Amino acid sequence: MPIELPGEILGLIITVLTRQHHPLQYGYRTSVRRTLHQLCLVSHLAYVFAAPLLYQSIVVRTHTELARLHRTRTQFNAADSFSSFHPTVSLSIHTLRGNDRTPRLLADLINLSRHSLQRLSLDTQLSRESPCHNPAVLSALSQCHHLHEFSTTLLHMTAISLQAAAARWPALRRLALDGVFPADTLIAVVSVLPSLTHLLLLAPAGHETVRALLHRARRLQRLVLVHETERMFQDQGPKIERLAARVQASGRDMRVVQLRFGDLGRLWEEFGTRGQSLSHGTEMKNHVEIGMLWDVGEY
What is the DSSP letter of 88? Predict the structure, then answer.
């Protein structure tokens, strides 16, 4: 005879079982995804609790996965249930190599999810054109007014298109950029984000750009800079450190953290020794694990 549990207890158990390694980590482990899928098939009550978690944090790595997710999302939309069923969504389009249909699918998916999409990481790769340069994708991004976090690379999104989209993100709090964006455009992007509190730059610009960023982003609480080379770290690091000290001395609640690219491997190992089994980040564009970098120095 099956054991029947009250909905509140069942929901608590499912939430604990699917707890992520890090609160800002994209996606779930394979075992967790399978468990959530199986729970959706157990009963209607289990489905009610498991399905929102299954679609709450998603990582897409292939065009086939994107097409399947788009089909599922379209079915939910037809039933007029997705917005209430999934109040918040985290989506990572990660190292995606697709075909000519990929940009349209990506644009449609972002449009369908724009009311619930709060975290988005775009690291897409096509042989001829990045979908982030596609007008339909750029238009869809500009409609994501509820975004709280966004990460991308200069390779896949031009500085100008980023500036245009950012002007429509009043609630954005965390922004992660990979690549040497032009200083004036970077400053312009930060200037149109009134809620920005966390900024992460991989391959950051010099200390003069950092000075301008701190001046424009008055609500900024955490600036994380990852230098590509030891030489860059030695050249710019001390200047930025002195700049940060002056800002903190003025009474502003803001912290600047500087890392070498080689430090990333050490950070993954430290998280692993704390009982959190995480894969190594061997590329700067590995946005799936970028959430951990916001908390560097806190452990």
Answer: -
